[in-house]
Every structure is written in structure tokens, then in C-alpha cells.
């Protein structure tokens, strides 16, 4: 009995080692198991990890009209001919080749979400995917450590993507950018070159930034409540179907946020006090939503803002003096304050001048004595509805300490803003 048992066991062992031998044999693997690239096929572990993330995302894509994802196979992620839409560079001190940019403009891809994709590529500096269909949600980018100095320069004459002089990346002649947007992206890892870039109009302060451009993507769901704990500088989510409030955590983007487009979604709730904490923001655009409430006094802290659009919402109350003062004098940077198609009922005296100068647009509101206002019945109907947002009682807001805005105010063309430029097709 005992002998038998031993024999059986040793048979098992032989069988087991035979199976192990089959699995380990490279020749057999090539024949019977599909040739999956292994860690050792990649220049480094980061690219192998990126490979796994890309393959997982590829598996969730349900529509690919241009057959783009057929190029997303094999181990050569950084090649010019494979992995269309992926770009590599050697950022930071480590100089390790890694995926730094994903540009999927106009590929018409459909996937339920980009969560688990772009937030899992830790060296990603730039994600641009206009006109795809990426379903639910905006991924939280807090986990990504951005290693670059990135400057994004509008260039109407010669649209192209250029590699940086310092890094030998493969972020070269834009295969897909050329047709869709007039922007020149310039990666530079050398801080000494900073001054050179000024000459061709780099946007200052865009260091340690992240760029997330997801206009026209059929995104639905709410903005993540912890959105503010990312380090995004350019956030463009225009023309989607996002719902719910602007999260109050947004104030934590105070240091990083330069431009934010929330234009044309279905955002609702009260205009948050915390938006006024974005003292470095140059563009804030939440037009064409269902936001309500008065303008919080904190908006007087927006000392860098040049374009402020809250048009076509359900805002009410007074257009405050402190807000209009952001456009006044040589230090005033506000060049376009769009508050049209709301339910404001009065306007501070300092704002009248701005209306005259074409800086402030208050058309289609409920302001007595001004031209082009809503019909009284329409105003009465809106104003009789219960109002639940906090009243704008405080006259002076406590503003966060911030670096003073640069003294030389330049009147910029609308399309010279990074996020607005990406709206043009
Ligand atoms: C997609 O591309 C692959 C590889 O180039 C090719 O084998 C396949 O037939 C293409 N499919 C379609 C639908 O064009
Ligand atoms: C001001 O902003 C609104 C809303 O973004 C835009 O439609 C308009 O063209 C802008 N005006 C100027 C002169 O830039």
C-alpha cells in the first residue's frame, strides 16, 4: 500500500515537471501560446508596465474605425510606425525612456472609460484625445509625477509638434496633431533654456504641469470630488455631458491651474466659493451649464484671470463691484467677462464702464434699465423659485496669498489660450 502511494506521487512529479518544461520552452511557446512580449523584450521596466496598461485599455475598446489599435502590439512602443498615438521621451534626471504623451485626436475610439489607462501611465505629461468616445468619468491624476517642463505654444502659421533639443525623444512631427489643432508642443528638460523659450511666446509658469484635454468625448458622470488633489494645469472638458457640482476640492489646484474649460456640460449646483481661490488661473470657463447661485465674494481674488465665462447658466443676484474691478486700471487683467444669459438683477456702478467697453457682456439677464434683457415674466418666474445657495453677504473676501501677476498686460487673441485653441477643429 505504502509503496503504491509513493509510486503514484513520483508519477505526479514527473508529469508536473513535464508540464513545467512545456510552459518554459520558448520554442513551444511561440507555436502554441500567442507571442506575448516579456519584460526582457523591453528597454526598461517602465515601458513594460506601460505595455501592460496599453494592452488592458486596448481590450476595453469597442470601436476603432481607423484600425488604430492594430498598431498597438509588440514591444516597440516608442517606434514611429507602431503604437500610433503614443510618444516617448527621456524625462527628468533618470533619463529613462518612457511614455510621456498620448495623443488620440480624431481616432474615433470608443471605450467605457479612460480610468485605469492614463492615470496608470506615471510619466504621462500630455494627454489629448478630442473627438473620441470615452464614456464615464474624468480620471484622477493625483498619482502621476510629472517630470517635465512643458510649454505649449500656440502657433497659427506652422502647426507642428517638435521634439525638444535636449532630450532625444521621439515626440516628433505630429502625425495626428497637424490636422486638428494649431499648437506647437515643446518639451524641454533643461531649465537653462527657459529664457530662450520666452522669445517665441512660451506660457510662463507651466512647469510641473499636466495637461488633460478631453473636449468632445461624450464623457458623462460627475467630476471626481477629489479632482483638486491632482496637479493639472490645463484642464479642458468642454462639450461633454458631465453632471453634478464643481467639487469644492478645486481650490487645491490653486498653485497649478492655469486654464480650465468646463464649457457646455450639464454641471449643476451652486457656483462654489472655492473657484475664487484659483488665483493663478488665466482662463476659467464654465459657460453653458446649469450652475446657479450668486457670484461668491471670493471671485475678487481671481487676480490672474483674463477670460472668465459664466454665461448661459442660472446665476442671479448682483454683479459685484469687486469682480468688475479685476478689469480696472493697468494691473487689471480681466479682458473678457461673459455673464450673458443668466438671471442677474443688478450690476455694480464700476461694471457699467466695462459694458460700454465691450469687456463685460450682460445680455439676456434681468437687469432693469439695461438693453437686451429677458422678458419680465421670464425673470419673475425664475426669481420666484426657491434659492438655496449661500447668499453673497461678505463684501471683502479673504484671498489666498499668491505671487503678483506679471505687470505687463498683453491683450491676447482668443485662440492663443491653450485650452481655447484646442476647441478649434
Ligand atoms: C487592421 O489592421 C490589421 C493589421 O494591419 C489588419 O490585419 C486588419 O485586417 C485590419 N482590419 C481592418 C478592419 O481594417
Ligand atoms: C469673450 O468670451 C466669450 C465666451 O467665452 C466668447 O464667446 C467671446 O468670443 C469672447 N470675446 C472676445 C472679444 O474674446
From TrEMBL:
One GO cellular component assignment for this chain's record is: extracellular region
The catalytic activity, as recorded, is: L-threonyl-[protein] + ATP = O-phospho-L-threonyl-[protein] + ADP + H(+); L-seryl-[protein] + ATP = O-phospho-L-seryl-[protein] + ADP + H(+)
Q: Cite the InterPro entries for this sequence.
A: Leu-rich_rpt, LRR_dom_sf, LRR_extensin-like_regulator
E.C. number: 2.7.11.1
Q: Which Gene3D superfamilies match?
A: Ribonuclease Inhibitor (3.80.10.10)
Q: Which SUPFAM superfamilies match?
A: L domain-like (SSF52058)
From the UniProt record, which GO molecular function terms apply? protein serine/threonine kinase activity
One matching Pfam family = LRR_1
State the signal peptide span: 1-24
Classify the source by domain of life: Eukaryota
- Keywords assigned: Glycoprotein, Kinase, Leucine-rich repeat, Repeat, Secreted, Serine/threonine-protein kinase, Signal, Transferase
**Location within or outside the cell:** Secreted
Q: Which protein is depicted?
A: non-specific serine/threonine protein kinase
Naturally occurring in which organism (per UniProt): Leersia perrieri
Amino acid at each position: 500500500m505504502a509503496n503504491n502511494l509513493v509510486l503514484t506521487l513520483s508519477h505526479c512529479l514527473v508529469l508536473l515537471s513535464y508540464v513545467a518544461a512545456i510552459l518554459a520552452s520558448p520554442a513551444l511557446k511561440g507555436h502554441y501560446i500567442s507571442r506575448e512580449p516579456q519584460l526582457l523584450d523591453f528597454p526598461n521596466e517602465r515601458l513594460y508596465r506601460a505595455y501592460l496598461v496599453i494592452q488592458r485599455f486596448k481590450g476595453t475598446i469597442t470601436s476603432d474605425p481607423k484600425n488604430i489599435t492594430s498598431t498597438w502590439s509588440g514591444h516597440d512602443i516608442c517606434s514611429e510606425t507602431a503604437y500610433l498615438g503614443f510618444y516617448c521621451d527621456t524625462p527628468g534626471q533618470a533619463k529613462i525612456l518612457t511614455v510621456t504623451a498620448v495623443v488620440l485626436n480624431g481616432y474615433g475610439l470608443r471605450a467605457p472609460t479612460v480610468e485605469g489607462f492614463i492615470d496608470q501611465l506615471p510619466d504621462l505629461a500630455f494627454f489629448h484625445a478630442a473627438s473620441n468616445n470615452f464614456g464615464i468619468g474624468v480620471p484622477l491624476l493625483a498619482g502621476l509625477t510629472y517630470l517635465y517642463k512643458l510649454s505649449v505654444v500656440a502657433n497659427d502659421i506652422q502647426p507642428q509638434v517638435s521634439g525638444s533639443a535636449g532630450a532625444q525623444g521621439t515626440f516628433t512631427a505630429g502625425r495626428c496633431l497637424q490636422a486638428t489643432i494649431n499648437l506647437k508642443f515643446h518639451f524641454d528638460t533643461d531649465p537653462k533654456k527657459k529664457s530662450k523659450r520666452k522669445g517665441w511666446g512660451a506660457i510662463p509658469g507651466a512647469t510641473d504641469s499636466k495637461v488633460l484635454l478631453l473636449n468632445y468625448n461624450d464623457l458623462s458622470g460627475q467630476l471626481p470630488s477629489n479632482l483638486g488633489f491632482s496637479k493639472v494645469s490645463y484642464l479642458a472638458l468642454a462639450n461633454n455631458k458631465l453632471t453634478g457640482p464643481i467639487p469644492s476640492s478645486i481650490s487645491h489646484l490653486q498653485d497649478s491651474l492655469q486654464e480650465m474649460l468646463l464649457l457646455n456640460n450639464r454641471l449643476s449646483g451652486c457656483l462654489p466659493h472655492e473657484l475664487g481661490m484659483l488665483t493663478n488661473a488665466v482662463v476659467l470657463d464654465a459657460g453653458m451649464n446649469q450652475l446657479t447661485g450668486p457670484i461668491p465674494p471670493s471671485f475678487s481674488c481671481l487676480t490672474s484671470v483674463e477670460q472668465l465665462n459664466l454665461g448661459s447658466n442660472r446665476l442671479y443676484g448682483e454683479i459685484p463691484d469687486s469682480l468688475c474691478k479685476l478689469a480696472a486700471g493697468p494691473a487689471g487683467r480681466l479682458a473678457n467677462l461673459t455673464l450673458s444669459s443668466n438671471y442677474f438683477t443688478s450690476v455694480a456702478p464700476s461694471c457699467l464702464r466695462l459694458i460700454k467697453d465691450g469687456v463685460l457682456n450682460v445680455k439676456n439677464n434681468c437687469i432693469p434699465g439695461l438693453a437686451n434683457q429677458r422678458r419680465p415674466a421670464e425673470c419673475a418666474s425664475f426669481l420666484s423659485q426657491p434659492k438655496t445657495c449661500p447668499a453673497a453677504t461678505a463684501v471683502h473676501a479673504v484671498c489666498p496669498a499668491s505671487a503678483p501677476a506679471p505687470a505687463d498686460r498683453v491683450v491676447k487673441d482668443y485662440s492663443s489660450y491653450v485650452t481655447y485653441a484646442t476647441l478649434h477643429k
